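EI: anyone free to look at a 246-residue chain?
SC: sure, send it
EI:
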Amino acid sequence: MQILTASPIPEDSRRYWALGGAEAALEAVDRDIKSGTISIPHAAYVLSTVPLVALEEAARRTGYRHLRDALDDDAYQEALYVALSFHPELEATLNRGAIQYWLRLAWEDGGRDTRTVPATLAAQLRPLELHGYRTDDLRLPRRGLHLVVPPEAGLELSDSNRVKWTATDLLIVEESEPHLWRLCLEALTGEGRSAHVLAMHLPPGMSLETAVAQHEAKAAPNFDWRPLWTWALGAVLSLTPPASRA
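SC: here you go
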C-alpha cells in the first residue's frame, strides 16, 4: 500500500523544520532562495511537505488517539498556513494528504498490523448480511489494521476521469470516545494511485445494519460506499469474531 510505504517527506523539509518550526523554516527558505541555494520550485515543494513533519510531532504529542487533535495542533496549523502561502490552490490536496499520513502514523504506532484476506473469503464477504451483529461486536486486532484486498472482493475506486480501478488495499484506524473507524481504500490506476478516506461512526449498542443505513443517508449523491462498509465490517468480524460466535 503506497500510503504505508512511500516516503512523502524529503530530507530538506526535515532539515528546515529542525531550525525551529514553520516560521524558522520559511525564513531560512527565503534566505536560500535569495542566495540561489535553492530553486523556487523546490522551495515550494519543501514548504508544502513541512506540515507533514509538524503532523508527526502533533500525532506523537496527542498519542495518535484522534485525528482531529493532531490537525488542530497549533504547530501543524502554523505549518499549514506557511505551506498555503506558497500553494493556496493546494488546500484540499494538502488536507487529504495530512489525513492519510496521520492514518499511517497511527497504524505504525499500533504495531504495523497487515493481514491478507484470502480470495475465497473476500468473495464471500461481498453479499454478507449484517443481521444480528452490533457495533459492540467489532474488535480490531490492533488500533490500526492494513488489509491486502484481493480482486475477488469487488471493491473499486474511480480516477479523475471516472474510470474504475480494482482496489488493492484497505487501511482501518479506530478511534474511541466517540467510537469510529477511519477507512482509506487504495487502488493503483493509470494515473498512479487513487485513494479515498471515509469516517464511519459506530455508536455503542447499535446494529451494524442501522449504522450502515445512517451512513448511506449522509453519503454524497452518486457514490455507493455500502459495498466498502459491508466488506470492511465483514472482514474484521471474520478476523476477530465476537466471543459469542468465535
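EI: Residues 59 and 161 are 34 Å apart (CA to CA).
SC: 👍
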